[in-house]
Amino acid sequence: xxxxxxxxxxxxxxxxxxxxxxxxxxxxxxxxxxxxxxxxxxxxxxxxxxxxxxxxxxxxxxxxxxxxxxxxxxxxxxxxxxxxxxxxxxxxxxxxxxxxxxxxxxxxxxxxxxxxxxxxxxxxxxxxxxxxxxxxxxxxxxxxxxxxxxxxxxxxxxxxxxxxxxxxxxxxxxxx
Length: 176
Description:
Elements: H1 4-20, E1 28-37, H2 41-44, H3 49-61, E2 65-71, E3 80-85, H4 88-97, E4 106-116, H5 129-145, H6 151-164, H7 167-171
Antiparallel strand pairs: 1-3, 1-4, 2-3
């Protein structure tokens, strides 16, 4: 028979263990897009890089791309790249619009479904009116008016446009 102190210690450990292994988030299904690059990727990608990165940034802003990056020695020229996407449709959209593919930078690609059991992916919060406007209209409108603007300049110009909008125009983005 355990002593009272031993029973108390066992209960404390059991309680801590139950808290530690409590699973609160279900597995998440994501998709991995894998690119194999040509050996001279650093040279070959030059005319296509801005379009490739802009597409990736836009899909990240839209919540379709979670992360991406080169694999291998970046200075020597990466040999592959990985993209973590939220859906198969997002993968299809990315590969259909990525200038690296018709530009001859990618020699092979593969797509794998990935079930993530342990993650820190948070449920998406509802976007503010401003963020909805930026995603759906604002960023593209400012970029079209200022094609040479940097990402930071676009944000500043879009913020100024938002502040100039009437309350009723801003309100319509609440329902979007």
